[in-house]
Protein backbone atom coordinates (compact mmCIF):
# COMPACT_ATOMS: atom_id res chain seq x y z
CA UNK A 1 0.00 0.00 0.00
CA UNK A 2 1.11 3.55 -0.72
CA UNK A 3 0.74 5.70 2.39
CA UNK A 4 0.43 9.43 2.88
CA UNK A 5 1.15 10.32 6.48
CA UNK A 6 -0.33 13.55 7.81
CA UNK A 7 1.05 14.54 11.19
CA UNK A 8 4.70 14.17 12.05
CA UNK A 9 4.65 13.77 15.81
CA UNK A 10 5.93 10.65 17.54
CA UNK A 11 3.21 8.49 15.96
CA UNK A 12 3.49 9.85 12.42
CA UNK A 13 7.28 9.56 12.48
CA UNK A 14 7.07 5.96 13.70
CA UNK A 15 4.69 5.10 10.87
CA UNK A 16 7.17 6.57 8.39
CA UNK A 17 9.99 4.54 9.95
CA UNK A 18 8.11 1.22 10.27
CA UNK A 19 5.98 1.19 7.10
CA UNK A 20 8.70 -0.53 5.07
CA UNK A 21 8.95 -3.42 7.56
CA UNK A 22 5.24 -4.02 7.01
CA UNK A 23 5.60 -4.03 3.25
CA UNK A 24 4.19 -0.57 2.61
CA UNK A 25 5.75 2.52 1.10
CA UNK A 26 5.35 6.10 2.23
CA UNK A 27 4.71 8.43 -0.69
CA UNK A 28 4.01 11.64 1.20
CA UNK A 29 4.47 13.10 4.67
CA UNK A 30 3.07 16.35 6.00
CA UNK A 31 3.18 18.24 9.27
CA UNK A 32 1.26 21.41 10.02
CA UNK A 33 3.51 23.66 7.93
CA UNK A 34 5.43 21.54 5.42
CA UNK A 35 5.35 18.38 3.36
CA UNK A 36 7.43 16.05 1.28
CA UNK A 37 5.98 14.16 -1.66
CA UNK A 38 7.81 11.37 -3.46
CA UNK A 39 8.37 11.28 -7.21
CA UNK A 40 5.68 9.46 -9.13
CA UNK A 41 7.37 6.07 -8.87
CA UNK A 42 9.38 6.33 -5.68
CA UNK A 43 8.82 6.66 -1.96
CA UNK A 44 10.04 9.23 0.53
CA UNK A 45 13.32 8.69 2.36
CA UNK A 46 12.11 7.86 5.87
CA UNK A 47 15.41 8.63 7.53
CA UNK A 48 15.72 12.01 5.83
CA UNK A 49 12.18 12.98 6.89
CA UNK A 50 12.81 12.08 10.51
CA UNK A 51 16.15 13.88 10.55
CA UNK A 52 14.73 16.99 8.92
CA UNK A 53 11.87 17.07 11.39
CA UNK A 54 14.29 16.75 14.31
CA UNK A 55 16.79 19.29 13.03
CA UNK A 56 14.71 21.88 11.22
CA UNK A 57 11.19 21.24 12.50
CA UNK A 58 9.88 20.61 8.98
CA UNK A 59 9.48 17.45 6.94
CA UNK A 60 10.18 18.93 3.50
CA UNK A 61 9.81 21.92 1.25
CA UNK A 62 6.38 21.23 -0.18
CA UNK A 63 3.02 22.54 1.02
CA UNK A 64 0.92 20.31 3.35
CA UNK A 65 -1.88 20.37 0.75
CA UNK A 66 0.45 18.63 -1.69
CA UNK A 67 0.60 15.58 0.56
CA UNK A 68 -3.21 15.39 0.65
CA UNK A 69 -3.27 15.57 -3.13
CA UNK A 70 -0.54 12.94 -3.61
CA UNK A 71 -1.15 9.57 -5.23
CA UNK A 72 -1.66 7.35 -2.20
CA UNK A 73 -3.87 4.36 -1.35
CA UNK A 74 -4.21 5.12 2.35
CA UNK A 75 -4.18 8.41 4.21
CA UNK A 76 -2.75 7.99 7.72
CA UNK A 77 -4.21 10.81 9.80
CA UNK A 78 -1.97 11.33 12.83
CA UNK A 79 -2.44 15.01 13.60
CA UNK A 80 -3.26 16.04 17.18
CA UNK A 81 -6.77 15.26 18.40
CA UNK A 82 -9.07 18.26 18.35
CA UNK A 83 -12.55 18.49 19.82
CA UNK A 84 -15.78 20.00 18.53
CA UNK A 85 -15.58 20.12 14.71
CA UNK A 86 -12.47 17.88 14.86
CA UNK A 87 -10.64 20.10 12.37
CA UNK A 88 -8.34 19.95 10.53
CA UNK A 89 -8.41 16.15 10.89
CA UNK A 90 -11.99 15.85 9.69
CA UNK A 91 -11.26 17.71 6.45
CA UNK A 92 -8.29 15.44 5.82
CA UNK A 93 -10.61 12.44 6.19
CA UNK A 94 -13.14 14.03 3.88
CA UNK A 95 -10.54 14.84 1.22
CA UNK A 96 -9.25 11.28 1.14
CA UNK A 97 -12.68 9.62 1.11
CA UNK A 98 -13.94 11.93 -1.60
CA UNK A 99 -10.97 10.78 -3.64
CA UNK A 100 -12.04 7.17 -2.92
CA UNK A 101 -8.94 6.52 -0.83
CA UNK A 102 -8.79 4.69 2.50
CA UNK A 103 -8.22 6.49 5.79
CA UNK A 104 -6.51 5.15 8.90
CA UNK A 105 -6.88 7.40 11.92
CA UNK A 106 -4.71 7.88 14.97
CA UNK A 107 -6.47 11.20 15.60
CA UNK A 108 -9.47 10.56 17.84
CA UNK A 109 -11.36 13.74 16.97
CA UNK A 110 -13.19 12.68 13.80
CA UNK A 111 -14.49 9.36 15.21
CA UNK A 112 -15.20 10.69 18.70
CA UNK A 113 -16.86 13.97 17.76
CA UNK A 114 -18.27 13.32 14.24
CA UNK A 115 -18.66 9.57 13.89
CA UNK A 116 -21.89 9.83 11.92
CA UNK A 117 -20.38 12.29 9.44
CA UNK A 118 -17.32 10.09 8.96
CA UNK A 119 -19.48 7.00 8.39
CA UNK A 120 -21.66 8.90 5.90
CA UNK A 121 -18.59 9.98 3.92
CA UNK A 122 -17.27 6.42 3.98
CA UNK A 123 -20.61 5.06 2.78
CA UNK A 124 -20.33 7.24 -0.32
CA UNK A 125 -16.70 6.36 -0.93
CA UNK A 126 -14.84 3.38 -2.30
CA UNK A 127 -12.42 3.97 0.57
CA UNK A 128 -12.78 2.59 4.11
CA UNK A 129 -12.07 4.22 7.45
CA UNK A 130 -10.23 2.38 10.21
CA UNK A 131 -9.20 3.72 13.60
CA UNK A 132 -7.68 0.99 15.81
CA UNK A 133 -4.91 3.34 16.94
CA UNK A 134 -7.41 5.76 18.50
CA UNK A 135 -8.21 3.35 21.34
CA UNK A 136 -5.59 1.83 23.63
CA UNK A 137 -2.49 2.27 21.47
CA UNK A 138 -1.10 -1.14 20.56
CA UNK A 139 -4.08 -3.00 22.04
CA UNK A 140 -6.40 -4.41 19.35
CA UNK A 141 -9.60 -3.17 20.97
CA UNK A 142 -11.65 -2.05 17.97
CA UNK A 143 -10.74 -4.99 15.76
CA UNK A 144 -11.49 -7.46 18.56
CA UNK A 145 -14.93 -5.91 19.00
CA UNK A 146 -15.41 -6.11 15.23
CA UNK A 147 -14.32 -9.74 15.17
CA UNK A 148 -16.80 -10.67 17.88
CA UNK A 149 -19.33 -8.38 16.19
CA UNK A 150 -20.60 -5.33 18.06
CA UNK A 151 -24.07 -6.85 18.42
CA UNK A 152 -22.53 -9.57 20.60
CA UNK A 153 -20.59 -7.20 22.80
CA UNK A 154 -22.49 -5.82 25.78
CA UNK A 155 -19.80 -3.54 27.20
CA UNK A 156 -16.19 -2.55 26.86
CA UNK A 157 -14.35 -1.16 29.86
CA UNK A 158 -10.83 -0.66 30.95
CA UNK A 159 -7.88 1.46 31.84
CA UNK A 160 -7.33 3.63 28.79
CA UNK A 161 -4.99 6.36 29.93
CA UNK A 162 -1.43 5.53 30.88
CA UNK A 163 -0.67 8.89 32.47
CA UNK A 164 -3.59 8.72 34.89
CA UNK A 165 -2.79 5.09 35.63
CA UNK A 166 0.84 5.88 36.33
CA UNK A 167 -0.18 8.61 38.78
CA UNK A 168 -2.69 6.39 40.62
CA UNK A 169 -0.21 3.52 40.75
CA UNK A 170 2.53 5.72 42.23
CA UNK A 171 0.15 7.37 44.69
CA UNK A 172 -0.87 3.94 45.98
CA UNK A 173 2.62 2.47 46.04
CA UNK A 174 4.43 5.40 47.65
CA UNK A 175 1.66 6.95 49.72
CA UNK A 176 2.26 10.24 47.94
CA UNK A 177 -0.25 12.92 47.01
CA UNK A 178 -1.40 13.74 43.52
CA UNK A 179 0.67 16.92 43.04
CA UNK A 180 3.89 15.23 44.06
CA UNK A 181 3.40 12.26 41.73
CA UNK A 182 2.30 14.52 38.87
CA UNK A 183 5.58 16.46 38.95
CA UNK A 184 7.47 13.17 39.02
CA UNK A 185 5.48 11.99 35.98
CA UNK A 186 6.24 15.25 34.19
CA UNK A 187 9.97 14.85 34.92
CA UNK A 188 9.82 11.34 33.48
CA UNK A 189 7.96 12.52 30.39
CA UNK A 190 4.96 10.35 31.31
CA UNK A 191 2.78 13.43 31.83
CA UNK A 192 2.68 16.52 29.68
CA UNK A 193 3.29 20.02 30.98
CA UNK A 194 -0.48 20.53 30.77
CA UNK A 195 -1.79 17.16 31.89
CA UNK A 196 -5.48 18.15 31.83
CA UNK A 197 -6.43 15.97 28.87
CA UNK A 198 -5.17 12.88 30.69
CA UNK A 199 -5.92 13.54 34.36
CA UNK A 200 -9.35 15.06 33.81
CA UNK A 201 -10.43 11.90 32.02
CA UNK A 202 -11.00 13.54 28.61
CA UNK A 203 -8.63 11.26 26.73
CA UNK A 204 -10.13 8.10 28.24
CA UNK A 205 -13.62 9.45 27.58
CA UNK A 206 -12.87 10.04 23.88
CA UNK A 207 -11.70 6.44 23.57
CA UNK A 208 -14.86 5.19 25.27
CA UNK A 209 -16.99 7.42 23.06
CA UNK A 210 -15.34 5.85 20.02
CA UNK A 211 -16.05 2.37 21.41
CA UNK A 212 -19.65 3.35 22.15
CA UNK A 213 -20.01 4.47 18.53
CA UNK A 214 -18.57 1.17 17.31
CA UNK A 215 -21.04 -0.74 19.51
CA UNK A 216 -23.98 1.46 18.62
CA UNK A 217 -23.42 1.67 14.84
CA UNK A 218 -22.14 -1.90 14.60
CA UNK A 219 -25.08 -3.28 16.55
CA UNK A 220 -27.76 -1.37 14.61
CA UNK A 221 -29.52 -2.98 11.67
CA UNK A 222 -29.57 0.39 9.93
CA UNK A 223 -26.83 2.96 10.68
CA UNK A 224 -29.49 5.65 10.42
CA UNK A 225 -31.06 4.24 13.59
CA UNK A 226 -27.81 4.11 15.52
CA UNK A 227 -27.26 6.48 18.38
CA UNK A 228 -24.23 8.66 17.81
CA UNK A 229 -22.01 9.54 20.74
CA UNK A 230 -19.69 12.47 21.23
CA UNK A 231 -17.73 13.70 24.23
CA UNK A 232 -20.77 15.67 25.37
CA UNK A 233 -22.62 12.37 25.96
CA UNK A 234 -19.99 11.04 28.32
CA UNK A 235 -20.08 11.30 32.09
CA UNK A 236 -16.49 12.15 32.98
CA UNK A 237 -14.71 12.43 36.32
CA UNK A 238 -10.94 12.73 36.51
CA UNK A 239 -8.34 11.95 39.14
CA UNK A 240 -7.04 15.45 39.88
CA UNK A 241 -8.85 15.79 43.20
CA UNK A 242 -8.41 12.23 44.44
CA UNK A 243 -6.55 12.54 47.77
CA UNK A 244 -3.91 10.02 48.85
CA UNK A 245 -6.17 8.99 51.72
CA UNK A 246 -8.61 7.42 49.24
CA UNK A 247 -5.88 5.11 47.99
CA UNK A 248 -4.81 4.28 51.54
CA UNK A 249 -8.35 3.38 52.58
CA UNK A 250 -8.74 1.29 49.46
CA UNK A 251 -5.44 -0.52 50.10
CA UNK A 252 -6.47 -1.37 53.68
CA UNK A 253 -9.31 -3.32 52.17
CA UNK A 254 -7.30 -5.07 49.43
CA UNK A 255 -8.43 -2.65 46.78
CA UNK A 256 -7.05 0.19 44.75
CA UNK A 257 -8.33 2.96 42.52
CA UNK A 258 -8.15 3.02 38.75
CA UNK A 259 -9.52 5.50 36.24
CA UNK A 260 -11.96 3.20 34.49
CA UNK A 261 -13.76 3.99 31.28
CA UNK A 262 -16.89 2.05 30.35
CA UNK A 263 -18.77 2.07 27.09
CA UNK A 264 -21.96 0.31 26.14
CA UNK A 265 -24.19 1.04 23.18
CA UNK A 266 -26.11 3.34 25.52
CA UNK A 267 -23.74 4.98 27.98
CA UNK A 268 -20.21 6.26 28.34
CA UNK A 269 -18.72 6.80 31.75
CA UNK A 270 -15.21 7.56 32.97
CA UNK A 271 -14.47 7.80 36.68
CA UNK A 272 -12.04 6.67 39.34
CA UNK A 273 -13.35 3.31 40.54
CA UNK A 274 -12.48 0.82 43.24
CA UNK A 275 -11.02 -2.39 41.91
CA UNK A 276 -9.37 -5.33 43.62
CA UNK A 277 -5.69 -4.71 44.19
CA UNK A 278 -4.67 -7.87 42.37
CA UNK A 279 -7.61 -7.90 40.00
CA UNK A 280 -7.43 -7.96 36.24
CA UNK A 281 -8.15 -4.27 35.83
CA UNK A 282 -5.51 -3.13 38.32
CA UNK A 283 -2.76 -2.83 35.73
CA UNK A 284 0.33 -0.91 36.85
CA UNK A 285 2.16 2.13 35.60
CA UNK A 286 1.46 3.23 32.07
CA UNK A 287 -0.10 -0.10 31.06
CA UNK A 288 -3.59 -0.12 29.61
CA UNK A 289 -6.19 -2.86 29.65
CA UNK A 290 -9.36 -3.37 27.68
CA UNK A 291 -12.00 -5.74 28.98
CA UNK A 292 -14.68 -6.84 26.55
CA UNK A 293 -17.96 -8.28 27.85
CA UNK A 294 -19.55 -10.54 25.26
CA UNK A 295 -22.82 -12.40 24.92
CA UNK A 296 -21.40 -15.76 23.88
CA UNK A 297 -17.65 -15.59 24.37
CA UNK A 298 -17.46 -14.56 28.01
CA UNK A 299 -15.09 -11.84 29.06
CA UNK A 300 -11.95 -11.01 27.16
CA UNK A 301 -9.03 -9.04 28.57
CA UNK A 302 -6.29 -7.49 26.49
CA UNK A 303 -3.56 -5.49 28.17
CA UNK A 304 -0.53 -3.75 26.82
CA UNK A 305 0.98 -0.44 25.95
CA UNK A 306 -1.66 2.18 25.43
CA UNK A 307 0.56 4.87 23.96
CA UNK A 308 3.91 5.49 22.35
CA UNK A 309 5.12 6.08 18.81
CA UNK A 310 6.03 2.56 17.65
CA UNK A 311 3.15 0.99 19.62
CA UNK A 312 0.54 3.24 18.05
CA UNK A 313 2.21 2.97 14.64
CA UNK A 314 1.90 -0.78 14.96
CA UNK A 315 -1.88 -0.45 15.39
CA UNK A 316 -2.00 1.88 12.38
CA UNK A 317 -0.03 -0.51 10.21
CA UNK A 318 -2.28 -3.34 11.40
CA UNK A 319 -5.25 -1.34 10.13
CA UNK A 320 -3.48 -0.76 6.81
CA UNK A 321 -3.00 -4.52 6.56
CA UNK A 322 -6.72 -5.11 7.10
CA UNK A 323 -7.52 -2.85 4.17
CA UNK A 324 -5.90 -5.15 1.67
CA UNK B 1 -47.53 -34.19 60.30
CA UNK B 2 -50.23 -35.09 57.83
CA UNK B 3 -51.34 -31.58 57.01
CA UNK B 4 -48.28 -30.44 55.09
CA UNK B 5 -48.11 -33.12 52.48
CA UNK B 6 -51.76 -33.18 51.60
CA UNK B 7 -51.87 -29.83 49.89
CA UNK B 8 -50.69 -29.61 46.36
CA UNK B 9 -47.52 -27.56 46.10
CA UNK B 10 -47.03 -27.62 49.82
CA UNK B 11 -46.03 -24.00 50.22
CA UNK B 12 -47.41 -21.82 53.00
CA UNK B 13 -49.75 -24.48 54.31
CA UNK B 14 -50.08 -22.84 57.68
CA UNK B 15 -53.77 -22.38 57.36
CA UNK B 16 -53.97 -25.28 59.75
CA UNK B 17 -55.78 -25.14 63.02
CA UNK B 18 -53.34 -26.03 65.72
CA UNK B 19 -51.20 -22.93 65.61
CA UNK B 20 -47.98 -24.89 65.65
CA UNK B 21 -47.67 -26.40 62.23
CA UNK B 22 -44.09 -25.52 61.66
CA UNK B 23 -42.65 -28.60 63.33
CA UNK B 24 -44.18 -30.46 60.46
CA UNK B 25 -41.48 -29.03 58.30
CA UNK B 26 -38.88 -31.64 58.99
CA UNK B 27 -36.05 -30.23 56.98
CA UNK B 28 -36.76 -32.40 53.99
CA UNK B 29 -40.03 -31.58 52.36
CA UNK B 30 -40.48 -27.85 52.55
CA UNK B 31 -37.23 -26.56 53.92
CA UNK B 32 -36.59 -24.20 51.07
CA UNK B 33 -39.37 -21.83 51.84
CA UNK B 34 -41.16 -22.89 54.97
CA UNK B 35 -39.05 -20.94 57.46
CA UNK B 36 -40.97 -17.70 57.33
CA UNK B 37 -44.12 -19.10 58.71
CA UNK B 38 -43.32 -19.07 62.42
CA UNK B 39 -42.82 -15.32 62.48
CA UNK B 40 -45.96 -14.77 60.48
CA UNK B 41 -47.86 -16.82 62.98
CA UNK B 42 -47.09 -14.55 65.87
CA UNK B 43 -43.47 -15.02 66.74
CA UNK B 44 -44.00 -15.97 70.40
CA UNK B 45 -43.92 -19.61 69.61
CA UNK B 46 -41.07 -21.11 71.62
CA UNK B 47 -40.78 -24.30 69.62
CA UNK B 48 -37.87 -24.48 67.18
CA UNK B 49 -38.30 -24.57 63.43
CA UNK B 50 -35.97 -25.07 60.50
CA UNK B 51 -34.15 -22.10 59.02
CA UNK B 52 -31.88 -21.74 56.06
CA UNK B 53 -29.17 -19.13 55.79
CA UNK B 54 -27.02 -18.55 52.76
CA UNK B 55 -23.53 -17.31 53.55
CA UNK B 56 -20.65 -16.16 51.45
CA UNK B 57 -17.29 -17.34 52.73
CA UNK B 58 -13.80 -16.28 51.82
CA UNK B 59 -11.90 -19.21 50.32
CA UNK B 60 -9.55 -19.70 53.28
CA UNK B 61 -9.06 -22.49 55.82
CA UNK B 62 -11.19 -22.22 58.93
CA UNK B 63 -13.83 -19.98 57.44
CA UNK B 64 -16.55 -22.60 57.49
CA UNK B 65 -15.92 -23.45 61.14
CA UNK B 66 -15.93 -19.75 62.00
CA UNK B 67 -19.29 -19.41 60.33
CA UNK B 68 -20.84 -22.39 62.12
CA UNK B 69 -19.75 -21.38 65.60
CA UNK B 70 -22.11 -18.41 65.95
CA UNK B 71 -24.98 -20.72 65.01
CA UNK B 72 -24.11 -23.36 67.56
CA UNK B 73 -23.19 -20.83 70.25
CA UNK B 74 -26.53 -19.08 69.96
CA UNK B 75 -28.76 -22.08 70.33
CA UNK B 76 -29.05 -23.26 66.74
CA UNK B 77 -29.18 -27.00 66.12
CA UNK B 78 -27.30 -27.70 62.90
CA UNK B 79 -29.12 -29.93 60.43
CA UNK B 80 -27.21 -29.73 57.18
CA UNK B 81 -24.50 -27.78 55.44
CA UNK B 82 -24.36 -27.42 51.72
CA UNK B 83 -20.92 -26.18 50.82
CA UNK B 84 -20.89 -25.20 47.18
CA UNK B 85 -17.15 -25.37 46.64
CA UNK B 86 -16.20 -24.72 43.06
CA UNK B 87 -19.28 -22.61 42.54
CA UNK B 88 -18.02 -19.14 43.32
CA UNK B 89 -19.98 -15.94 43.67
CA UNK B 90 -19.22 -12.99 41.40
CA UNK B 91 -16.85 -11.74 44.08
CA UNK B 92 -14.91 -14.99 44.09
CA UNK B 93 -16.32 -16.23 47.39
CA UNK B 94 -17.86 -19.58 48.20
CA UNK B 95 -21.59 -19.80 48.80
CA UNK B 96 -22.61 -22.00 51.72
CA UNK B 97 -26.14 -22.92 52.69
CA UNK B 98 -26.74 -23.93 56.27
CA UNK B 99 -29.96 -25.47 57.62
CA UNK B 100 -30.51 -25.42 61.35
CA UNK B 101 -33.28 -25.52 63.90
CA UNK B 102 -33.88 -22.62 66.21
CA UNK B 103 -36.72 -20.67 67.71
CA UNK B 104 -37.64 -17.49 65.89
CA UNK B 105 -36.11 -15.40 68.63
CA UNK B 106 -32.86 -17.28 68.58
CA UNK B 107 -32.80 -17.26 64.80
CA UNK B 108 -32.59 -13.47 64.81
CA UNK B 109 -29.81 -13.59 67.37
CA UNK B 110 -27.92 -16.06 65.21
CA UNK B 111 -28.13 -13.85 62.13
CA UNK B 112 -26.93 -10.88 64.19
CA UNK B 113 -24.08 -12.96 65.61
CA UNK B 114 -23.02 -14.10 62.12
CA UNK B 115 -22.93 -10.55 60.89
CA UNK B 116 -21.10 -9.39 64.01
CA UNK B 117 -18.40 -11.94 63.14
CA UNK B 118 -18.02 -10.25 59.77
CA UNK B 119 -19.61 -13.12 57.88
CA UNK B 120 -21.58 -12.13 54.82
CA UNK B 121 -25.17 -13.28 55.20
CA UNK B 122 -26.67 -13.34 51.74
CA UNK B 123 -30.02 -14.68 52.75
CA UNK B 124 -31.67 -15.40 56.07
CA UNK B 125 -35.17 -16.72 55.76
CA UNK B 126 -36.65 -14.56 53.05
CA UNK B 127 -34.69 -11.50 54.11
CA UNK B 128 -31.81 -10.97 51.69
CA UNK B 129 -28.63 -9.04 52.42
CA UNK B 130 -27.09 -10.46 49.34
CA UNK B 131 -24.69 -7.85 48.14
CA UNK B 132 -21.84 -6.22 49.93
CA UNK B 133 -20.65 -2.96 48.42
CA UNK B 134 -17.43 -1.21 49.33
CA UNK B 135 -17.02 2.36 48.19
CA UNK B 136 -15.01 5.42 49.17
CA UNK B 137 -16.35 8.93 49.63
CA UNK B 138 -14.06 11.93 49.64
CA UNK B 139 -14.40 15.66 50.04
CA UNK B 140 -15.34 17.83 53.00
CA UNK B 141 -16.87 14.90 54.82
CA UNK B 142 -16.69 16.37 58.29
CA UNK B 143 -17.92 19.85 57.38
CA UNK B 144 -20.85 18.33 55.55
CA UNK B 145 -21.83 16.25 58.58
CA UNK B 146 -20.63 12.71 58.02
CA UNK B 147 -23.06 11.36 60.53
CA UNK B 148 -25.96 12.90 58.63
CA UNK B 149 -24.54 11.47 55.39
CA UNK B 150 -24.46 8.00 56.89
CA UNK B 151 -27.93 8.27 58.39
CA UNK B 152 -29.32 9.29 55.04
CA UNK B 153 -27.65 6.35 53.32
CA UNK B 154 -29.20 4.13 56.00
CA UNK B 155 -32.55 5.75 55.41
CA UNK B 156 -32.46 4.97 51.72
CA UNK B 157 -34.31 1.73 51.26
CA UNK B 158 -31.67 -0.15 49.31
CA UNK B 159 -28.75 -0.39 51.67
CA UNK B 160 -27.53 -0.33 55.22
CA UNK B 161 -24.13 0.84 56.40
CA UNK B 162 -22.15 -2.07 57.84
CA UNK B 163 -18.77 -0.45 58.37
CA UNK B 164 -17.08 2.95 58.10
CA UNK B 165 -13.38 3.84 58.10
CA UNK B 166 -12.42 7.50 58.06
CA UNK B 167 -9.10 9.02 57.05
CA UNK B 168 -8.62 12.72 57.74
CA UNK B 169 -4.83 13.11 57.50
CA UNK B 170 -4.97 16.89 57.21
CA UNK B 171 -7.38 17.43 60.03
CA UNK B 172 -11.11 17.69 60.02
CA UNK B 173 -11.38 20.92 58.06
CA UNK B 174 -9.55 19.64 54.98
CA UNK B 175 -10.51 17.01 52.47
CA UNK B 176 -10.99 13.63 54.05
CA UNK B 177 -11.98 10.18 52.86
CA UNK B 178 -14.24 7.48 54.18
CA UNK B 179 -14.50 3.87 53.13
CA UNK B 180 -17.99 2.49 53.54
CA UNK B 181 -19.10 -1.09 53.52
CA UNK B 182 -22.76 -1.28 52.63
CA UNK B 183 -25.08 -4.21 52.63
CA UNK B 184 -27.60 -4.03 49.88
CA UNK B 185 -30.54 -6.20 49.08
CA UNK B 186 -30.07 -8.69 46.34
CA UNK B 187 -30.09 -7.13 42.90
CA UNK B 188 -30.19 -3.61 44.31
CA UNK B 189 -26.52 -2.65 44.30
CA UNK B 190 -27.00 -0.22 41.44
CA UNK B 191 -29.85 1.47 43.33
CA UNK B 192 -27.78 1.56 46.50
CA UNK B 193 -24.84 3.20 44.71
CA UNK B 194 -27.19 5.64 42.99
CA UNK B 195 -28.67 6.58 46.36
CA UNK B 196 -25.20 7.24 47.78
CA UNK B 197 -24.30 9.26 44.71
CA UNK B 198 -27.36 11.43 45.05
CA UNK B 199 -26.60 12.25 48.67
CA UNK B 200 -22.94 12.85 47.77
CA UNK B 201 -23.81 15.17 44.89
CA UNK B 202 -25.95 17.26 47.14
CA UNK B 203 -23.04 17.69 49.57
CA UNK B 204 -20.45 18.09 46.81
CA UNK B 205 -18.69 14.91 47.85
CA UNK B 206 -17.14 12.52 45.35
CA UNK B 207 -17.85 8.80 45.22
CA UNK B 208 -15.32 6.20 44.17
CA UNK B 209 -17.72 3.40 43.39
CA UNK B 210 -16.85 -0.22 42.71
CA UNK B 211 -17.46 -1.71 39.31
CA UNK B 212 -20.89 -3.19 39.90
CA UNK B 213 -21.17 -6.83 39.00
CA UNK B 214 -17.59 -7.01 37.81
CA UNK B 215 -14.93 -9.09 39.48
CA UNK B 216 -12.30 -6.44 38.89
From TrEMBL, chain A:
Residue ranges of domain Homoserine dehydrogenase catalytic in the record: 142-320
Protein name: Homoserine dehydrogenase
Gene3D superfamilies: Dihydrodipicolinate Reductase, domain 2 (3.30.360.10), NAD(P)-binding Rossmann-like Domain (3.40.50.720)
Catalytic residue list: 207 (proton donor)
Residues annotated as domain Aspartate/homoserine dehydrogenase NAD-binding: 7-132
Keyword match Oxidoreductase: yes
Pfam families in the cross-refs: Homoserine_dh, NAD_binding_3
Top EC class, one word: oxidoreductase
Lineage: Archaea, Methanobacteriati, Methanobacteriota, Stenosarchaea group, Halobacteria
Pathways per UniProt: Amino-acid biosynthesis; L-methionine biosynthesis via de novo pathway; L-homoserine from L-aspartate: step 3/3; Amino-acid biosynthesis; L-threonine biosynthesis; L-threonine from L-aspartate: step 3/5
One GO MF term: homoserine dehydrogenase activity
Enzyme Commission numbers on file: 1.1.1.3
Ligand binding (L-homoserine): 192
Coiled-coil spans in chain: none
GO biological process: methionine biosynthetic process; threonine biosynthetic process
Keywords in alphabetical order: Amino-acid biosynthesis, Methionine biosynthesis, NADP, Oxidoreductase, Threonine biosynthesis
Amino acid sequence: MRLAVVGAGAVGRSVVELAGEHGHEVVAVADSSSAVVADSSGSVDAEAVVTRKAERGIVGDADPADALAADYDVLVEATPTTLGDAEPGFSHVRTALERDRHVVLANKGPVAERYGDVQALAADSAGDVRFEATVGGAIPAVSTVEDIEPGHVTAVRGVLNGTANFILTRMAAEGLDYDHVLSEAQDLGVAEADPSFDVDGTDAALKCVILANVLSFGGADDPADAREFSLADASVEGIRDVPGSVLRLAAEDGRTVRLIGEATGETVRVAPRLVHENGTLAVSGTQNIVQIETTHAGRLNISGRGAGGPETASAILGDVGRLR
Amino acid sequence: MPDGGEFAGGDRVSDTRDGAPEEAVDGESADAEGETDPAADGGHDPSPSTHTVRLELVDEPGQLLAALQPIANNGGNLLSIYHERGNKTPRGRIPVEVDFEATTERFEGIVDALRAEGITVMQAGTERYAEEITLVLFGHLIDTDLSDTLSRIEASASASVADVSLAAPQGTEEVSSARLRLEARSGETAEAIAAVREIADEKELRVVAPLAGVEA
